[in-house]
Design brief:
Elements: H1 2-16, E1 18-24, E2 31-38, H2 39-63, H3 76-111, H4 139-151, H5 155-158, E3 175-178, E4 189-192, E5 198-200, E6 205-213, E7 217-224, E8 228-238, E9 245-246, E10 251-255, E11 266-273, E12 276-278
Antiparallel strand pairs: 1-2, 3-4, 4-11, 5-10, 6-7, 6-9, 7-8, 8-10, 8-11, 11-12
């Protein structure tokens, strides 16, 4: 018992033994300030400081926005917003993929080349792609074709005005320099205008193609209701981009003389319905 009592007294003496901490001026050794301390005070002060530091840190993390700056930690609100954005991005990607496939298919139809058939390169008719199709007519079909050609080969398309109440307006005012002539594979009318004349949309629609070719220069194609398509070629510039929505009479380009298949500033205008060319004069008053 006496031994244990001595050890306790010795430990207590060590903990309560007082030390004097003095801060001196290094050059003059002048005492600046000092204070007394012992091991017990240092231990208690250190423990209290650590507890306070931990408590303040926990409070900041649990009840302030500072927790969002800690790597790997995020609030439930941010997680919900991130999830919503992921769903929206996924939906947009799917919609864009569908639109890309649709636009690519339209572009293939409108910009493809018909193989082994001689056509006027200044017409969209050459761009209808024909693949793996047996085009050899039967005797009955040949006789029927000859009969149709003798009467009026394209009359069925010229009468298409009866199937819709869609109203077209003239894309530009000018002198018609070349008429619609399906026998010469010219499925359009050419309108001579001054260079820089605004080209307007013939009806409300969507831009499905814009581009430049060596033969036809700057080309813009619009899709309209009732499966109508209008084509504008030899533009100096194009003011719209693929996917834009346009209103009837809205300026979509500037007339010019771009491309090799042109003899001067004019608009080469084509009108199509259900994949077939139509005489634009049956729909539009160009005078």
């Amino acid at each position: 018992m006496a031994k244990n009592s001595k050890q306790k007294n010795k430990l207590k003496e060590k903990l309560t033994f007082k030390y004097r901490l003095v801060v001196l001026n290094e050059d003059t050794f002048e005492e600046r300030f000092s204070f007394k301390l012992n091991r017990l005070n240092v231990f208690v002060f250190g423990s209290v400081s650590a507890i306070l530091l931990v408590s303040v840190t926990i409070f900041l993390i649990a009840f302030t926005p500072l927790r969002e700056y800690i790597p790997g930690y995020s609030s439930s609100k941010l997680k919900k917003q991130a999830s919503d954005l992921v769903y929206k991005v996924d939906s947009l990607e799917q919609q864009l993929a569908v639109n890309d496939v649709y636009i690519q298919n339209i572009r293939k139809v409108l910009t493809g080349k018909i193989k082994d058939i001689t056509v006027n390169k200044d017409s969209i008719a050459e761009q209808l792609r024909i693949e793996d199709v047996d085009l050899q007519p039967t005797p009955i079909d040949s006789a029927f074709r000859q009969q149709v050609e003798r009467e009026d080969r394209f009359s069925v398309f010229e009468k298409a005005t009866k199937k819709t109440d869609l109203v077209f307006s003239s894309p530009v005012k000018g002198q018609i320099s070349d008429l619609y002539n399906p026998k010469e594979k010219h499925y359009a009318i050419d309108i001579a205008v001054k260079k820089g004349t605004p080209i307007k949309a013939a009806a409300d629609g969507t831009v499905i193609f814009t581009g430049f070719t060596a033969d036809t220069g700057f080309v813009i194609i619009l899709e309209h209701p009732k499966n109508f398509i209008t084509v504008y070629k030899h533009n100096e510039t194009i003011h719209k981009e693929q996917g834009d929505l346009v209103k009837s009479g809205e300026v979509i380009g500037i007339a010019g003389s771009t491309g090799t298949l042109t003899t001067g500033p004019h608009l080469h205008f084509e009108l199509w319905n259900d994949g077939f060319p139509i005489n634009p004069i049956n729909y539009i008053d160009f005078e």
